[in-house]
Amino acid sequence: MLIDKKHNRFFRFTPISIMLVLLIFMLSFSLFGMLGINSMMKTALKKHEQSNIIHSQIYAGLINRYQSLFKLVNGNTSTTDTGKIQALINEIYQERKKLIKNQSLCIHNKNKPINPIFVKQAAMLSAYKKLEDQVIELVKQGENYKAFLLFSNELLKQKENTLKQILRGNKYIQTQSADEIQKINDQTIYSIAFYGFINMILIALGLYFSVHILRQYISKNKELTDSSRLDLLTNLSNRLHFLEEINRQILEKPNSSFAVAFIDIDYFKSINDIYGHTLADSLLVQFGKVLSSQLKGVNHCIARFGGDEFVLLIRDINRKKTDALMKKISTAVNTNYYSHGQKIGLTSSIGVAMYPDDATTTKMLLHKSDLAMYQAKKTGRACYRLFSNKLVNTVLVENEISQRLQTSLSNKKNIYLLYQPLLNTETYSVSDCEALLRWNDPKHGEVSPETFIQIAEKTNLIRSVNYFVIDEVCKQQRKWAKDGNYRIRVNINLAGNQQIFTASLKRLIEKIQKYDLSPFLFGIEITEGSLFEINDLTINQLRIANRMGIKISIDDFGTGYSSLLYLAKLPLTTLKIDKAFISNLCDREKDNTIVLSIIKLGQSLGLDIVAEGVETYNQCEYLKLHSCNIIQGYLFSKPISAEELEHLEIPDLKTKSQAQNYRIA
Ligand code: C2E
Ligand code: MG
Ligand code: MG
What we know:
This protein is of the alpha/beta class. Helices cover 60% and strands 14% of the residues. An eight-stranded mixed β-barrel has the order 8-9-11-12-13-14-15-16, surrounded by five helices. The site of one magnesium ion has 5 residues, from strand 13.
């Protein structure tokens, strides 16, 4: 029994319980119908039994009379007691008349015999009837003797058994009146028809409800399975369904060609942090819709793989068509989105792998499309990349580089720091420098930090890089502190995810405290791109560092995705304008405007402004004119060793610029 615990009821409306009730309902009605028919049949049979008794009695009487007649004839064939014979024949005639009248009606039942036994008996009795008819006809004409002879001859021929046989076989022949027989037959037929009809209705109803409930159950079930395969936010498929779809495609159409695309929205983490989850979610929904709209008429499956990652399965498509489709998709999705009164521009990086050319398993297809997506990210984002073996080589090279870098870091061989001084153009003094890592790999030669830092960032190797630089800078500061003749703040570039970043900052603070160094001799640079990876824990750690006196700069400002709100939230001291803007300064009006805006923004937030990548005197003058007095760049000094830094002499920038034949105004 089903017990609804919550409502303390004995019955719960579940599809199965409803079906059970219906089944019981149907069975009871069928039973009722069957019982009805059964009782009708019983009544009919009872009447048959009764009629059989009468029937037998009549026949018994008949046989007696036939036997008497027989005896009479056998006893005296010449004289014959015609009076007795006639009387017997008359009796027989009367009885047979009754019998034959009813029998013929019963047996033939409007010429429709209802039982094969009846048919057989009917044939025999009708043969007898013919004989009797002839006898009766002769008796009617007063030809009793002739009638007797005909009758006795026939009886002798047929033997007595025939009659008995007929009597025995007549069990079901009714000897009631024609009306009664008809009534019983009709009643039986009506009851069968009535209960049959009710049963049919019940069965039909039962079937209808069963099918209805079953359908509802199936559709509910489907809904449930669908929802387990649906991404509830975007209403697209989810990861599970997507994987099933690729598997199915491979299994069912192993010879077809299809594409798997991996799409990651650029800087979405930042958007989430800046604008909040509600808005970010609405952007994801819109993004999904734009994506779907580009796939009309294309045999596809689209899913949100998780977070800001979307995946596409494009069936029956070749590489060339995939390329064209991705171009179209990339252009469409990289657009402005509107939500909560905000206009937000989104871009995404797309990586594509082709089946069967690039991979033949779901896992590898996803892996390779993911690799291609990273390639797209690496090459400036907001674009798509199709997987190629060249890309594999890149990955292989990256793996190799990563391993070799690890070796260098642990052996502290072929890896070292250079320091690039920052010049205060107002005071013509150097109070800061930036520690920049150099790696001279025996196999690959001088590897650009941009390359190896990016590779290290993809793995947790960046933690070792951070620790190495922190340790080296602390070592250098200790050395300078010990010598006591040189003091300069060293800014350290820290990268990595929140966890690595926080751990690295913690390590720096611990080292400073351990070696009793002045925190004012240390600074950290965080790139604008990684700024938004920062969580509250990191912000706290930054506050501790800031309160101690460690300078905190935002590096490469203008290239990432910052908001004023976010900037105000962080305990910053400095903004470093990215060299990309400085290199075109004075040449491109647009860059001038950007630089001036950054300067104004920094000033309004009470921050120091540093311009990096200053190569010409004009750039320097322009910056100075607009109150950006700290410069870092080749104009003043390239990154140099600690010893060189100690002995650095500040050159006349104008002369140096002219001498180096840098861009002269
Ligand atoms: P960054 O932190 O923005 O460093 C400034 C980069 O600009 C340095 O490149 C520097 O040599 C270069 N630079 C300075 N002045 C000029 C100039 O006038 N013209 C030009 N064209 N370039 C100039 P570098 O040393 O190649 O480093 C590139 C990037 O690699 C750095 O950019 C930084 O993001 C990263 N990096 C370097 N060392 C480290 C490190 O120790 N740790 C981490 N996490 N990243 C590092
Ligand atoms: Mg830097
Ligand atoms: Mg920089």
